[in-house]
Design goal:
The chain is of the alpha+beta class. It is built from 8 helices and 12 strands. The protein has one domain. A 6-stranded mixed sheet has the order 3-6-7-8-11-12, with helices on both faces. It starts with a helix and ends in a 7-residue tail after the last helix.
Length: 266
Amino acid sequence: MISIDDLLKQIKREFEKSIKKATFNGQKYANGNKAKEALIRSQKLINYIHEYVKAEFIRNGINKNQIYPSIGQSKPEVKINGFLKTKNQDVSILPKGKKLDSLKSGEFERILTVNIRSQLSSMQKNIDTLYERTFAEALNLHLQYRNICLGEVYLIPTHEYDDKAMLKNKVAFKAVSKIEEYIMKFQAINNRVDPDHDEYKYERVCLLIVDFRLKHPKIYSDIKELIRDGLIHKGTKANLNNLTIDRFADNLLSIYSKRFDIKDLI
């Protein structure tokens, strides 16, 4: 299984290669920004994180045959009808014996599901829109299925890639991102324990904060590290408790086991 560190190196390498060479998948583009957009639209990079999340669930004892899409695949996704809209789920674990074509409406509540996003550029101007969308998706499903266990993985850089530099096929970074704001916002929708309350929250959120400026991308899992590196000011009220990638799968499964029989997923 690839480590999270190696996975992030691969994301950095492929992302920056598309910018510098203005190419993706053998096709030449007008500039690095256009090539980067094609790479992002392909879902190739985000699928690496999908596979990592699947592997983490398997490492925690989940039956790989219950995971959709299956290992190494991006289709088919489980489609769940929420309170307001229907949404495809990035990674889902179905109860034992259940298949996509045999699920009944009452059984969707027993699915464990994780959605995965990343924002390597344009994150400063899009923070409110991105957050509202994330907030709304948890609410949409919990209003329909109050016991369903939802996870969210969100990859953000400490310094976003500079779109203007991409136009010249160059890799550059902007000033430090609004990391503290992201942490505070995502902490506010994290750790839903009581299925009768807080429908807008996720059972577990992972905010994957990474410095891609380094040759070996650095993951931040401690507020003290962020302060020490000058990325967050001293005296901050932000914290990363239950917001990091470590134990993400384990925490979700622990919450699931309090609502349903965990043996259904093993």
